[in-house]
Every structure is written in structure tokens, then in C-alpha cells.
Amino acid sequence: MRAPLLKLPGWHKRWLYACFAVLAGSGLAWLLLHYGRDADTLPLPAEAWVLRIHGLASMAGLMGLGMVAGSHVPAGWRISAQAGRLGQRRSGLWLSAVLMAVVLTAYGLLYLVPEAWHEATGWLHAGLAASLALLWAWHRPRRHRAGR
Prior knowledge:
The structure is a single chain. The protein is an all-alpha fold. The chain has helices at 10-35, 45-82, 86-112, 118-139, 142-145. Helix 2 (45-82) packs antiparallel against helix 3. The relative contact order is 0.10.
């Protein structure tokens, strides 16, 4: 049986899944709107609204991830060593590191990165964010991946 702190409540899972679905959808929508137009045309007003939705979902997602960091991560760190499941620890570290890189590249795009670096940083942000789905699948316990 899984430890109670490792199993996220259903509402928490739904919150995170909803946030990440909105983040993925709004991120893809922005990419299509931004790069789907001619370079010499003005941005569509929808681009700004899609980014606003993306930012709102990121704040809600960060709140949900903060709850994960406060309960699931410390308990998982202890239990994985006791149960000999160090692969979970490794995948959790990778997942956390890439999540941090996604957050930092988003912050950089908003506040730090010079305009000349925006496109490259944006693609880095998108690539890192896309890799999260693979890392999350790797991190999930085997019994959940197999549907047991």
C-alpha cells in the first residue's frame, strides 16, 4: 500500500491536470498564432489573451506544485530509500529540475532576457515544457503505468 502522503488527493490531481492542460493548450495556441502569421504582419490581439491565460494557469499550477513540494516530495524522498525505489528518487529529481528550468525560462522571458534572445529562450522554454510529459510518465510508479 502507498503511503498516504505519496498519494495525491483526487482534487489535487484534477487541479494539476487542468492547469497543465491549459498551459499546454495555451502554449501551443500561442506558438501557432505567433509563428503561423507572416513575419511582417502585426500580432493578433488573441496572442496577448492566450499569454494572459497561460500566465494565470502557470500561477495556479505553481500553487499546486507548491503543495506537492510540501508533502509528496519529502515523504517520497524518505520512503524511496527505505523501499529500495531509488529510480523514483532519480526521476523525481529530473522532473523537479526540468520544472525549475521551465519556471526560470518563463521568468527570463518576462523580465531578464534581452529581446534578441527571446526567440531562442522561448523555444527552449517550449522544449523543456514538452519534455515534462515524458518525465512525468517515467516518474509514475510502475503499477500506475501498467494500469494496476
